[in-house]
Write a structure and sequence with these properties.
With about 250 residues, this protein is of the alpha/beta class. About 40% of the residues lie in helices and about 10% in strands. The strands form two sheets. A five-stranded parallel β-sheet has the order 2-1-3-4-5, sandwiched between helices. It has a two-stranded antiparallel ribbon with strand order 6-7. Strand 1 (about 45), helix 3 (about 55) and strand 2 (about 70) form a beta-alpha-beta unit. It is globular.
Length: about 250
């Protein structure tokens, strides 16, 4: 079996396991997002470096929820050079709290935080600060990884210790999934594809719940479809009080 088939099989296996074992947690997350939208509370999404790609996956895109606010902080989104600085920055104690305090959050808002290991200080401080302010904290992580590594936070805590709702991505230890003969380092990570599938499914379920409650879900339409720009201006205007990226 070539690496193509090995990766495909690995991703399918992970997704099958996720949708079997994390269904309850995903349902809880969907209900939390639906309630936040129904009650005009804000939704935030955060991750460091490649984990932050999932915050961008949920943000300003066709079929996505208009009210998801990505948290984009200096040094956290792969924009720095040399890129190795990003790995150092996410380990700085206290920086996560600085980032959190820059947000326009209030008690009862929802924040989704993604980290494969959950060990670095920024995401731990972000989750801790959110809990202290009374936000609902949804964590997406890899428990196989998180439970095997040591925390880099002074408290010894990891991201999942602060979760109100915890979703495990069921990925491999170290994230990469494909082992090549004669090469010691595995290749091809799965956290992005699995995480995107998990979170888009959660968003879809949240929208379904809103419709069942008689509430129109705030969803972007492609700007490349006729009427898309008009639709998006309308839905952004309707929810502007909970949108902080415009």
């Amino acid at each position: 079996m070539s690496a193509l088939e090995t990766y495909y099989s690995s991703v399918l296996g992970i997704l099958e396991e996720v949708f079997e074992r994390e269904r309850e947690a995903m349902e809880q997350a969907a209900r939390a997002l639906a309630a936040a939208n129904r009650e005009k509370r804000s939704v935030f999404a955060f991750g460091c470096n490649h984990a932050g790609l999932l915050a961008l996956e949920l943000f300003y895109r066709t079929g996505g929820m208009v009210t998801v606010n990505p948290v984009r902080a200096p040094g956290m989104m792969l924009e720095v050079s040399p890129i190795t600085m990003s790995s150092e920055l996410e380990r700085i104690p206290g920086y996560g709290r600085v980032i959190f305090e820059s947000l326009q959050t209030k008690e009862g808002d929802v924040i989704l935080i993604h980290s494969v290991s959950g060990r670095n200080a920024v995401t731990v401080d972000m989750a801790k600060a959110a809990k202290e302010k009374g936000l609902m904290v949804i964590v997406l992580t890899n428990l196989r990884m998180a439970e095997a590594v040591l925390s880099r936070h002074p408290s010894g805590k990891k991201l999942h210790d602060f979760a109100d709702i915890l979703i495990d991505n069921h990925g491999d230890y170290g994230d990469a999934a494909v082992r090549l003969e004669g090469f010691s380092q595995k290749v091809a990570p799965t956290s992005t594809v699995a995480g995107a599938a998990i979170l888009n499914a959660v968003i879809a379920r949240a929208c379904e719940l809103l419709l069942q409650e008689g509430v129109m879900p705030p969803v972007f339409m492609s700007g490349n479809l006729e009427g898309g720009d008009e639709h998006n201006r309308s839905v952004i205007g309707e929810h502007r009080g909970n949108i902080y990226y415009m």
